[in-house]
Specification:
single chain; 342 residues; 8-stranded parallel beta sheet; 12 helices; 14% strand; globular; binds 1,3-dihydroxyacetonephosphate
């Protein structure tokens, strides 16, 4: 696979009106989600839940790709079709989470480094064989008065770039995900400065490690006030601070910025994306790669019951449609009450 194919995959993932579903919750995270609806996290329940999402009729109009977890990429739909094959048959590109999680960073109290580089070349070859054409690696950074440290920022940037280079070698588009966490009472200005430092280090490492920026996507946090802060910034301010940061630190060669939702409410995540799109055009496509903000109403409507599959699909379809509208700045809160036909 040449550079050209990587560019095409990256462009297809941010095709007009479409975004990515992050359905790559690890064993621990999906258990937490299932706990909220009181169902057990068995392999069959996890399969049935993902099957409901992936077989939602018509959602491919709004969804370009799905990020899978190691277990999920090996599972099949109820009729026996492997998930990657099912997605590809609808024109949805299968992706895979390849990091092994954020682990405590040595000599850095309260900070993490994302692990998973050992054996990554071999794992990527296997995932490519299973149908994955893009991947995700997430690093996390906490904000306090003293954190994040430069040590944490540069160690994670180095690992993100090593991962990205290995992906491209394997014919897989790397999504680089440096997530500055919004827990805490910090101001939006502080979140802006931290996000700027993180992106500056990330692009320095990506260039140094010869990564072809046209064949990557960035999955960042939005720049928000701390979730426990007072006088939290509204959508317009969020859009201004986030765009200011990206204009300074994200090269125009990046084909698309696909935001994570990071614990925002579903409707906030949509409204924030909409506010940024409305201020366009921008050098990069602005899109979504949401986990919680696409799935929260769906998992609640499903509640683990086969008779609720259609209700779960309607809820997921609706959020995908709202976020698609937000990509062109055409979302309005009134659209939330629209009747939805699946
Ligand atoms: P959230 O949208 O729930 O933050 O999840 C996106 C994701 O893939 C985190 O790695």
């Amino acid at each position: 696979m040449g550079q050209h194919d990587l560019h095409e995959i990256a462009e297809a993932l941010v095709a007009e009106g479409k975004g990515i579903l992050a359905a790559d919750e690890s064993g621990g995270t999906i258990k937490k989600r299932f706990d909220t609806i009181g169902i057990e996290s068995t392999e069959e329940n996890r399969r049935a839940y993902r099957d409901m999402l992936f077989t939602t009729p018509g959602v491919e109009e709004y969804i370009s790709g799905v990020i899978l977890f190691d277990e999920t990429i090996r599972q099949s739909s109820a009729d026996g079709t492997p998930f990657p094959k099912l997605l590809a048959s609808k024109g949805v590109i299968p992706g895979i989470k390849v990091d092994k999680g954020a682990k405590p960073l040595a000599h850095a109290e309260g900070e993490t480094v994302t692990e998973g580089l050992d054996g990554l070349r071999e794992r990527l070859a296997e995932y490519h064989g299973l149908g994955a054409r893009f991947a995700k690696w997430r690093a996390t950074y906490s904000i306090t008065d003293a954190l994040p440290s430069d040590y944490c920022i540069w160690t994670n940037a180095h690992a993100l770039a090593r991962y990205a280079a290995l992906c491209q070698e394997a014919g897989i588009v790397p999504i680089v995900e440096p997530e500055v966490l919004m827990d805490g009472t910090h101001t939006i200005e502080r979140a802006y400065h931290v996000t700027c430092r993180v992106l500056d280090a990330l692009y320095t490492e990506l260039f140094d490690q010869r990564v072809d920026i046209f064949g990557t996507l960035l999955k960042p946090n939005m720049v928000l006030s701390g979730y426990d802060g007072s006088n939290r910034a509204g959508a317009d301010e969020v859009a201004d601070w986030t765009l200011k940061c990206f204009y300074k630190h994200v090269p125009a060669a990046v084909p698309g910025i696909v935001f994570l939702s990071g614990g925002q409410s579903d409707e906030d995540a949509t409204a924030h994306l909409n506010a940024m799109s409305a201020k366009g055009p921008h050098p990069w496509a602005l899109s979504f790669s949401y986990g919680r903000a696409l799935q929260a109403p769906a998992i609640k409507a499903w509640a683990g019951k086969p008779e609720n599959v259609e209700a779960g699909q309607r809820a997921y379809y609706h959020r995908a449609k709202m976020n698609s509208a937000a990509r062109s700045g055409l979302y309005a809160p009134e659209m939330e009450s629209e009747a939805i036909a699946v």
